[in-house]
Design goal:
alpha+beta, five-stranded antiparallel beta sheet, four-stranded antiparallel beta sheet, 2 helices, 9 strands, 15% helix, globular, disordered N terminus
C-alpha cells in the first residue's frame, strides 16, 4: 500500500473513532458509563492530573505526526429524523478531499443518498455540487475531486436524503466549516 494511502487511512480512522465515540455521548443519559480503552498507568509512572502531550487527542494530527487539513462536522437532524453523527473532511494530495461520514440512523434501512451542496443548511442549492456515496448502515466514504480549502472558501453543506425513493426529504445536514 503506498505511503500516502496509509497516511490518509490512518488520518481518517483516528478522528472517526473519536467521532463515533462522541456520537455515543451526545449529552443524553446512558445506562452505562463510557470507559477509556487506554491501559492503566504503570506502577512506576508518576501520577499526573494533566494528560501528557502525546496522550492528548487532536483531530488535526495523524498518528504519524503529520498535520492534516481537516474539517470535522456535526449533523443536525431534519424532518424529525433523529439522525445524529458527523463527518470528517480530510484534504488529500492532488486537490482531492476524503469525506468520511458516520451516523446513527435508527429506523432507516434503505441507503440514503448524500451530497455536498452549495449554500447553507438553511439556504441549500437543491442541485448537488459533489455526489457522495450513499450512507448505508450508518457510514459513507468518498473521495471528491475538490480541495478542502475550496469547499471552505464559500458556503457548502453535506446533505443526507431519506432514500432514493424519497430524495426530496432531507434527514440531516452539516455545514462545512472548521
Amino acid at each position: 500500500m503506498p505511503r500516502i494511502t496509509r497516511t490518509a487511512l490512518a488520518a481518517l480512522l483516528l478522528p472517526l473513532g473519536l467521532l463515533l465515540a462522541a456520537c455515543n455521548t451526545g449529552g443524553a443519559a446512558t445506562s452505562s458509563p463510557v470507559t477509556s480503552a487506554s491501559p492503566p498507568p504503570s506502577a512506576t509512572a508518576p501520577a499526573s492530573a494533566e494528560p501528557s502531550e502525546s496522550a492528548a487527542a487532536s483531530p488535526s494530527a495523524s498518528p504519524s505526526g503529520i498535520t492534516l487539513n481537516q474539517a470535522v462536522l456535526q449533523f443536525e437532524a431534519q424532518n424529525d429524523s433523529g439522525i445524529t453523527g458527523g463527518a470528517i473532511l480530510t484534504e488529500l494530495d492532488g486537490g482531492e478531499t476524503a469525506v468520511t461520514i458516520g451516523v446513527v440512523a435508527v429506523g432507516f434501512a434503505d441507503p440514503m443518498p448524500t451530497h455536498i451542496h452549495e449554500g447553507t443548511c438553511d439556504d441549500l442549492d437543491p442541485t448537488p455540487k459533489y455526489p457522495l456515496n450513499d450512507v448505508a448502515t450508518g457510514a459513507s466514504n468518498t473521495v471528491v475531486e475538490v480541495g478542502l480549502d475550496e469547499l471552505l472558501a464559500t458556503p457548502h453543506a453535506v446533505n443526507i436524503h431519506k432514500s432514493a425513493a424519497e430524495a426530496s426529504v432531507y434527514v440531516a445536514c452539516a455545514e462545512i466549516t472548521r
